[in-house]
Design goal:
The protein has 198 residues and is α/β, with parallel strands linked by helices. It contains five helices and nine strands.
């Protein structure tokens, strides 16, 4: 079995990824900015390239499900992307992405589709800036995002998912989303691109 570093393991997507990886028998190192009250976690800041390099040594892949509500997204996401690009040597990066920057069925980005809420556009653009940094690097990366949103009302693990274009009405549970993340580790199919799942 493989060795996976999960950054952002305190969050819902990160916790689900840890659970799914362990379910499959992989060795997992769960990382969070702070470990207070969670002795199973390892401390690490995704924006610290030296720390990322130290933590990622010996791991086959890094799943990054990161967010910092106390930092301007326009600063945080590019800094996180640079930390990963500079810190990772051999490990494949599986990045938890954002539906808003996926193209819809008509080819128009979800965030640019008519009627789509714009109050968080700066957050959308910050996520896109991170992908631009990955794209300019030599890193083996994939961004996996809910095609629409996470299903916060139903956490059921159905055991299935499918790839679709961005669709604001599409929902997926964290548990099923984690299956998609781990499938990209166990059977890599997408490289240097963003995909949406439902």
């Amino acid at each position: 079995m493989g060795k996976i570093l999960v950054i952002g393991a305190r969050g819902r997507a990160g916790r689900a990824a840890v659970d799914e990886a362990q379910r499959r028998g992989h060795e997992v190192t769960p990382v969070a900015r702070t470990t207070q009250g969670a002795p199973d976690l390892v401390a690490g800041d995704v924006t610290d390239a030296a720390r990322i390099a130290e933590l990622a040594a010996g791991h086959d892949a890094v799943i990054a499900a990161v967010y910092d509500g106390g930092t301007d997204p326009a600063l945080f996401f590019p800094q996180a992307a640079r930390g990963l690009v500079d810190g990772l040597r051999e490990a494949r990066l599986i990045w938890v992405g954002l539906a808003s920057i996926l193209p819809g069925e008509d080819g128009v980005l979800v965030m640019d589709s008519p009627g789509y809420p714009q109050e968080y556009r700066s957050f959308f653009l910050a996520h896109q800036a991170a992908l631009d940094i990955f794209a300019a690097s030599s890193l083996d990366w994939v961004s996996v995002a809910p095609a629409g949103d996470f299903n916060h009302a139903d956490s059921t693990r159905t055991g299935t998912y499918r790839l679709i274009p961005g669709n604001p009405t599409a929902l997926i549970s964290y548990a099923d989303f984690a299956i998609a993340l781990l499938d990209e580790y166990d059977h890599p199919k997408h490289h240097r691109q963003a995909v949406g799942v439902v």
